[in-house]
Write a structure and sequence with these properties.
- This protein is an alpha+beta fold.
- The N terminus and C terminus are likely disordered.
- α2 packs antiparallel against α3.
- The longest helix is centred in the middle third of the chain and has 21 residues.
- Strands 1-2-3-4-5-7-6 form a 7-stranded antiparallel β-sheet.
- The relative contact order is 0.15.
- A hairpin with a 2-residue loop joins β6 and β7.
- It is built from 4 helices and 7 strands; from the N terminus they run βαββααββαββ.
Length: about 170
């Protein structure tokens, strides 16, 4: 198998529009597609995390997971997960610039968000009476794997799920 990496960077025209589309039109959007034997394997976006744009990124991640072979359950889980990861950037990170990555590796789907904070995410037993504080715990419980990787410039927070109800050891 040959792995080809293609980078496409394009300045999109600024036109009046609403919500998450405006963000895509106002900034440089980097879409990275890794392909193996003609199949898309990964999607990556450089973005600014803003609360009003989370639903748009949920849609984009859902579409990417579908293209990568995810079934309805994988799409729903990825949408939920990316909402939590981006909401945490909005709430807890001073610099909203981040990178969102969705990729398929050996039949498994990974969703990763890089932010510019070196603080480890706090996953604690939730207070069921509180209005917040359950997201990462719930994500950890619902996914096959959840974690973070610290780097000198920040951290990657990620989760892994199956594409289509398959066993984690199976390859598609």
């Amino acid at each position: 198998m040959t792995l080809r990496i293609t980078h496409v960077t394009e300045r999109l025209p600024a036109v009046p529009c609403i919500g998450w589309v405006r963000q895509l039109l106002e900034v440089y959007v980097t879409l990275t597609m890794r392909t193996t034997e003609g199949r898309e394997r990964a999607y990556s976006w450089d973005l600014r995390a803003r609360a009003q744009d989370v639903e748009g990124w949920r849609r984009a991640v859902g579409e990417a997971v579908g293209v990568l072979g995810g079934d309805a359950d994988a799409v729903a889980l990825a949408r939920l997960g990316v909402s939590e990861l981006l909401a945490n950037v909005v709430r807890h990170v001073d610099d909203p610039r981040c990178c969102l990555l969705v990729e398929e590796e050996q039949g498994l789907l990974y969703v990763r968000v890089f932010d510019r904070s070196r603080d480890a995410p706090a996953v604690t037993m939730p207070d069921w009476d509180a209005e917040s504080g359950r997201g990462l715990w719930l994500l950890r419980e619902m996914t096959d794997a959840f974690g973070y990787t610290c780097t000198p410039g920040g951290k990657w927070v990620w989760f892994r799920c199956r594409r289509a109800g398959e066993d984690a050891g199976e390859k598609a």
